[in-house]
Design a protein that fits this description.
five-stranded antiparallel β-sheet; 2 domains; about 15% strand; Aminoglycoside 3'-phosphotransferase, Chain: A, domain 2; two-stranded antiparallel ribbon; alpha+beta; Phosphorylase Kinase, domain 1
Length: about 350
């Protein structure tokens, strides 16, 4: 059955002939998205091949959506599924992303919006496993452990250093850099500080619907340092915030974590780990953008490669733990040369 015909099965028979089905630009995954307008209004259909082979109780998107919803995190409502076709019908929360709103706001309104979103982030990071609903364990059984962090570093090595930027670093430099990456990963594995993270918490995954932030693309939620999502938001590959505002918002996140009883770090340790985590997160993002550009042939992410690499200098200059890695990465960092 063709995909449009499968999508029609999600709607009442009397509406199927009247549906207007239009493709929505998706993310860096193999999922497809459609806006479907019926006589009763619009909704969004996600086509995910992985859903066909997963029982609903084991499908991460549904598990995390329900988990977030139960804890007051605004996510799109689920309107229907057709698992045999890999389809989910969701509430249409419009087209306005946080990324789109930023140029419209003055400094005070922008700061207020980001504080609102950090409050939402802390709500996510406050979620704990629920013994009454053991299906939530999937997100809490996954962590930003050494293996996951190194998988992301290795993805960068494969697709950025050996792919997009081939021959900028020789094999010996890459081997030395991987050793530095391993040392950085070990510094970031602090389970006593781990909380639940969205895992991709940036300005394209926060919709604004009725002036309310709505979180999307949350299916990869896992535990790790609270700085992981904070770095995704404040050192965003798609928008660059004023550095003074970033410092203000980092401290706001730290204060909210302390108020919620979610961390025992002092502020200096929070800021140190923020820089180390942001370094890892940005390196990971560059690997993804290079993969999309060179392997998938999707050049939409290519402008974000240089923009994201541009963040690294600040972390390297601030943290001695990054000095050697920074020296090795100089051929890639805009504005530096060896």
């Amino acid at each position: 059955m063709e995909l449009p015909e499968s999508i029609r099965l999600l709607f009442p028979p009397e509406e199927r002939a009247q549906l207007d089905i239009r493709t929505i630009k998706g993310d860096a995954s193999n999922r497809q998205y459609f806006r479907v307008t019926s006589p009763r209004g619009a909704s969004v259909v996600c086509a995910d091949p992985a859903f066909r082979d997963a029982a609903p109780e084991n499908y991460p998107f549904l598990i995390v959506r329900d988990l977030f919803d139960r804890h007051g995190v605004r996510v799109p409502a689920l309107l229907g599924v057709a698992r045999e076709h890999g389809l989910l019908r969701l509430e249409d929360c419009g087209d306005l992303m946080l990324q789109d709103e930023i140029p419209m706001l003055d400094r005070d309104r922008l700061a207020a919006r980001y504080r609102q979103i950090i409050d939402l982030l802390v709500r996510i990071q406050s979620i704990r496993p629920d013994e009454k609903t053991p299906d939530t364990a999937i997100s809490f059984s996954l962590a930003f452990d050494k293996e996951k962090l190194m998988f992301e570093f290795d993805f960068f090595i494969e697709h950025a250093l050996r792919g997009y930027f081939a021959e900028r670093l020789d094999g010996r430099a890459i081997a030395e850099l991987r050793g530095e990456f391993l040392a950085i990963a070990r510094l970031l594995v602090l389970p006593e500080h781990f909380v639940l993270n969205h895992r991709d918490f940036h300005s394209r995954n926060i919709m604004l619907f009725g002036d309310e932030p709505v979180v999307i693309d949350f299916q990869d939620a896992r535990i790790g340092l609270p700085q992981y999502d904070a770095a995704s938001l404040l050192r965003d590959s798609y928008v660059r915030l004023d550095p003074y505002l970033v410092e203000e918002l980092k401290r706001y996140h730290f204060e909210r974590l302390r108020e919620a009883g979610l961390t025992t770090m002092d502020e200096a340790e929070y800021l140190r780990l923020f820089d180390l985590m942001a370094f890892q997160r940005n390196v990971k993002a560059v690997g993804t953008f290079c993969y999309q550009t060179t392997i998938i042939g999707n050049r939409a992410f290519e402008p974000s490669i240089e923009a994201t690499l541009g963040y690294l200098r600040a972390y390297i200059d601030a943290r001695p733990e990054l000095a050697v890695a920074g020296h090795l990465l100089e051929p890639l960092i805009p504005g530096t040369s060896r």
